[in-house]
Design a protein that fits this description.
By secondary structure, the chain is of the alpha+beta class. Helix content is 29%, strand content 28%. It is built from 12 helices and 17 strands. The strands form 3 sheets. Strands 5-4-14-13-17-12 form a 6-stranded mixed beta sheet, with helices on one face. Strands 7-11-8-9-15-16 form a 6-stranded mixed beta sheet, covered by helices on one side. The longest helix has 18 residues. The radius of gyration is 22 Å and the shape is globular. The two termini are 36 Å apart.
């Protein structure tokens, strides 16, 4: 005879509740006081961490109604109360017909053959569809690159722009007392700030007393990449000072050149700083690797070396909530590896249950960042890292690379 639900241990119930969608979890709260307490605990835990999901229109016969229902359903399952939402979009071919079908112009539901549209038109159409589903006062950032990266149940998803269907990878970032993501846009016809000192950078990003920068994602409009090098030189000077003081007090930096940025301000955005800021006493950890092999045959060697260093750094733990960013060159997709979703699957194989988001760009920004967080597994890590001088190189604007950033938020 089975055990009655009322006699189940609290830990068992918490485990069961952790698999329930938010809608069903709310229903569970009405059963009894015990379930209400435990379900609320699960909800509070969920709402403290970033959440991601990926959507792709499956085929040419998938109607706008299906798209509308799917997005509505997915947004209902957002656990956290987002303070910021970020959408990475691809550049599909048959997007005009999607727009037509939503207006009732395409009665048959089949997408006619058409030439590639301009990126701006496609991206604006997709972003409008998403904006209609989101709260008006929710800060939103749309990034159109040459493809998107995401994950679903430990499987990597890489959708490049030669894919003929629109898709996006999204990140919802909650309010949290221990950490926060800040984004700072710089618009065209606006002078870039001179970030020459730590104080300049902290003031610009809004870093408060008893807070520190952990990760900086730089998103650059393709038309303004000439401004990137002077900015990186200043950031490198600041990082060098921080590294000499304490490697863990420095920060990882990644990013890339994209087709277009839109922060829903109505202004043309040329540069966005998306920054993770945490309390000094918080247990937020960050590690980052740059994959740049001299030849394709050397990929496995470079990959194994860098991944092993990241694993030894002590950032990843099955007990903690983890988020990862992947920024890859548009030339490192399925044509290069002759296999779909190759690098994202390789990463998730080493770091399971991590939420992965990112994009394919036209030039990448990155630097290896492997701090030692003092776990038993990495007591020799500092010696290993010091023997590899390239791990302390400057942030570089480069090409044909993939940058992986792993962030853990301790429960």
């Amino acid at each position: 005879m089975g055990t009655p639900f009322k006699n189940l241990d609290d830990l068992v119930l918490l485990r069961i509740f952790s698999f329930l969608p938010s809608k069903h979890l709310h229903h569970s709260m009405r059963v009894c006081k015990k379930w209400n307490h435990l379900a609320n605990e699960v909800m509070r835990n969920r709402q403290s961490y970033p959440q991601t999901f990926v959507y792709q229109l499956k085929d040419n016969r998938d109607k706008m109604k299906n798209f509308d229902e799917k997005i509505h359903s997915d947004l209902e399952e957002i656990w956290c109360k987002p303070a910021l939402s970020v959408f990475f979009l691809n550049s599909p071919a048959f997007f005009e017909s999607l727009s037509e079908s939503s207006n009732g112009n395409n009665q048959n539901g089949d997408y006619p053959k058409s030439k590639r549209l301009k990126t701006e038109h496609k991206k604006d159409t997709m972003s409008k569809l998403i904006k209609n589903k989101l709260a008006l006062n929710l800060p939103k950032l749309f990034i159109t690159g040459d493809g998107i990266v995401g994950s679903d149940k430990n499987s990597g998803i890489e959708i490049e722009s030669d894919c003929e269907q629109p898709a996006f990878s999204s990140l919802f970032i909650p309010h949290n007392g221990s950490y926060r993501f800040e984004y700072k846009p710089v618009y065209f016809k606006t002078k870039l700030p001179e970030l020459k000192t730590e104080q300049d950078l902290d003031k610009f990003l809004g870093v408060k007393q008893n807070e520190e920068i952990k990760f900086l994602l730089l998103l650059v409009d393709g038309y303004s990449d000439s401004k990137l090098i002077p900015l990186l030189n200043n950031l490198n000077r600041i990082r060098k000072i921080k590294i000499e003081r304490d490697v863990k007090k420095s920060f990882a930096c990644s990013g890339g050149i994209v087709k277009k940025l839109d922060d829903c301000s109505g202004k043309r955005t040329k540069l966005v700083f998306l920054c993770l800021i945490s309390k000094v006493e918080s247990k937020c950890k960050v590690s980052q690797i740059v994959i740049r092999e001299p030849t394709q045959q050397e990929f496995d060697t470079v990959w194994d070396e860098k991944i092993n260093l990241m694993k030894k750094s002590g950032v990843f733990s099955n007990k903690d909530k983890c988020l990862a960013f992947q920024v890859s060159c548009c030339g490192r997709g399925k044509d290069y590896h002759r296999q779909e979703n190759f690098e994202s699957n390789m990463f998730l194989k080493e770091f399971p249950n991590v939420s992965l988001v990112g994009f394919f760009g036209y030039g990448e920004v990155g630097v290896d960042y492997i701090p030692d967080y003092g776990t038993d597994a990495n007591k020799n890590l500092i010696d290993d890292v010091k023997n590899k001088e390239y791990l302390f190189e400057n942030i570089q604007a480069t090409g044909f690379t993939s940058i992986f950033t792993l962030i853990s938020f301790q429960n």
